[in-house]
Amino acid sequence: MVKAVVCGAAGGIGQPLSLLLKLNPLITELSLYDVVNALGVAADLSHIATPAQVTGFLPPDNGAERALKGADIVVIPAGVPRKPGMTRDDLFVNAGICATLASAIANACPKAFILVISNPVNSTVPVFAETLKKAGVFDPKRLFGVTHLDIVRASTFLATVLGKPQDAPKYKVPVVGGHSGVTILPLLSQAEPKIPSDVLGDKAKRDALVNRIQFGGDEVVKAKDGAGSATLSMAQAGAEFAEFVLQAAFGGKKSQRPVQAYVYLGAEAGGEAVKKEIGADLDYFSVNVELGPNGIEKILPIGQIDAAEKELLGAAVKELGPSIEKGATFQPAPPKL
Ligand SMILES: NC(=O)c1ccc[n+]([C@@H]2O[C@H](COP(=O)([O-])OP(=O)(O)OC[C@H]3O[C@@H](n4cnc5c(N)ncnc54)[C@H](O)[C@@H]3O)[C@@H](O)[C@H]2O)c1
């Protein structure tokens, strides 16, 4: 029996993500929470003939905690998306929503795996961690900032550059750092299969590919022209990442290969080694992790990177530090009396 909850389930990401989770045979109960329209989305999805029983919840009568009660996994795309000209940092308004949801999780399902999609991930994950710490229930092995869309984009864009777009699923590019502009650090030198030297060694081609991976989200924001940011690709990436966590925890399948997520570096052995590799005392970083029944089992080293990547790492670290600090020191407004 596995209970999954989507917070922000009626949104652009929330709806297709809820659909994909409804199709996941490991999930037997699916709760959909939103401040609007969650009942309609739940009624619609409930007609699909898969095992998961779907229920919708709105805020009245402590709806968030009723939705979350006893959850095993909570996926959170709640909040405001970007409009043209905005960076993810401009979405810090979402911090308050994240703090409120974290408090509800602390009360209703303190042992759940928490997958944070709401931007700016670089700051909202620290907001979750600090709120859970205050409630005395923070388990860093169970908290993930979902950066998997960066990995998905990296495979797709690399395959396109190599003239083999149909081979996108075969390409694996580790992407570490954070989830915003220059904090997104694709490790092209570690790509599998190896990138031919006429691409990797061509500065202009390489810079263009790195830039597309870092700022790929802007292509969608621009094309949607005011109607939001990536939703369908994010839903697919979020559902795929949830599947990795669910398989490791409940499906009896440890991840076949490491997965990447933005995690607390104190989560497990390995985090301190990453801090040494990046040469900075950052508490959060997107890294390769191994998953098991209790979440993160091991944080893996970044490994060897080349000179171009070292330069990018410097820029990523410089921007990540203040974003982490902003989230970690966020003070939610006191409730209105
Ligand atoms: N991690 C990533 O890679 C990634 C990628 C794309 C978008 N995002 C982020 O995901 C978030 C959602 O994007 P979207 O396009 O689905 O936005 P959206 O506006 O379409 O949907 C957000 C949903 O959240 C709901 N919501 C607002 N406040 C809430 C609260 N307090 N509790 C529960 N639900 C609440 C809204 O009613 C809405 O249905 C944004 O912050 C966006 O920047 C992250």
Automatic annotation (TrEMBL):
Q: Where is the Lactate/malate dehydrogenase N-terminal domain?
A: 3-145
On the tree of life, the source organism's domain of life is Eukaryota
The reactions it catalyses are: (S)-malate + NAD(+) = oxaloacetate + NADH + H(+)
**Any idea which positions bind substrate?**
82, 88, 119, 153
The entry's NAD(+)-binding residues are: 8-14, 34, 94, 117-119, 234
Q: Which residues form the active site?
A: 179
Query: Does this entry carry the keyword Oxidoreductase?
Result: yes
The name this protein goes by in its record: malate dehydrogenase
Organism the protein comes from = Saitozyma podzolica
